[in-house]
Amino acid sequence: MNKWQTYRIKDVAKFISEKANDCSLPYIALDNIVSWDSTYIPSDSTSDGNSNICKKGDVLFGKLRPYLAKGYILTQDSICSPEFIVLRPNDLVNNKFLLYCLLSFSFISHIKNQVAGVKMPRTNALQVGRVSLSLPPVAEQEAIAAYLDKECGKIGKEIGLLERKVDCYRRLKHSLINQTIKL
User: Fold this and answer.
1) Please, what sign has the CA dihedral across residues 46, 50, 54, 59?
2) Three-class SS string for the chain?
3) What is the pLDDT of residue 59?
4) Residues 58/87, Cβ–Cβ less than 8 Å
5) 27-28: strand order across its sheet
6) Residue 135 CA to chain centroid, in angstroms?
7) Tens digits of residue pLDDT in 64-117
8) CA atoms within 13 A on the CB side of 95
């Protein structure tokens, strides 16, 4: 077994804060990302002109209300809300493994204790960058990320099935009420 090493996030990923000039690229807002899930939900959100450039493979982490755990890996070059921290992993870390670390309960718990603001709490790149991660070699990170992708996919399917069942029960309940109470 290979030895895991400890690095600060700022040592394994570059923080990108390049402002976008091209608003024709796809735009990603905080609302497009499902909390704790890293799923992208399309919407009609558009840039207000204050966006950051992000490239395919970059990792986004929501700095506004970080306890919502909004993270995403870019599947194409895009622009994003300035409420995201854009991380570009170097060769010491796999982007999926980094995202799983950022969405871990321990990371979120640590970061939420560092935020500033009451109504609109935010973290920042400096706070995130100082957090230490224990990282195995990249090949092992890739294997761990693939395992998590597979298992989280199974759980996601089960959640979808349960949500459909709940919806059916809600409709059945509504139908029962409507058939019993006729005005």
Assistant:
1) negative
2) CCCCEEEEHHHHEEEECCECCCCCCCEECHHHECCCCCCECCCCCCCCCCCEEECCCCEEEECECHHHCCEEECCCCEEECCCEEEEEECCCCCHHHHHHHHCCHHHHHHHHCCCECCCCCECCHHHHHCCEEEECCHHHHHHHHHHHHHHHHHHHHHHHHHHHHHHHHHHHHHHHHHHHCCC
3) 98
4) yes
5) 27-28, 78-80, 52-54
6) 19
7) 999 999 999 999 999 999 999 999 999 999 999 999 999 999 999 999 888 877
8) 18
Please write the tens of the pLDDT for every residue from 18-39. 888 777 888 999 999 999 999 9
Q: How far apart are CA 30 and CA 81, in angstroms?
A: 7
Strands ordered across the beta sheet of 13-16:
13-16, 84-89, 59-62, 71-73
For residues 99 and 33, is the Cβ–Cβ distance under 8 A?
no
Q: What are the tokens at 55? A: 């490239």
**183 band by pLDDT with thresholds 50, 70 and 90:** low
Q: 108, 66 in Cβ contact below 8 A?
A: yes
